[in-house]
Amino acid sequence: MPALRVILGDQLSHDVAALDGAADDDLVVMAEVRDEATYVRHHQKKIAFIFSAMRHFAAELREKGRQVRYFHIEDDEDGPHTLRAAARKALEEGRFDEIVITEPGEWRLAEDLRRWEGDLGVPVRVVADDRFICDHETFEEWAEGRDGLLMESFYRMMRRKTGLLMNGDEPEGGRWNYDKENRKPAPGGYEPPKRIDFQPNDITSRVLTTVAERYGDHFGALQPFHMAVIRAEALRALNAFIERALPEFGDYQDAMLGGEAYLNHSLLSAYINAGLLGPVEVCEKAEAAYRAGEAPLNAVEGFIRQIIGWREYIRGVYWLKGPDYAKTNHLNASGKLPDFYWDPDKTDMACVSEAVRHTRDHAYSHHIQRLMITGNFALLAGVEPAEVNEWYLIVYSDAFEWVQLPNTHGMALFADGGVVATKPYAAGGNYINKMSDYCKGCAYSVKDKTGEKACPFNYLYWDFLDRNEDRLKGLRRLNMPYNTLGKFSAERRNEIREDADRFLKSIGVR
Question: Residues near 437 by Cβ (< 8 Å), separated by ≥ 6?
Answer without folding.
Answer: 186, 256, 257, 258
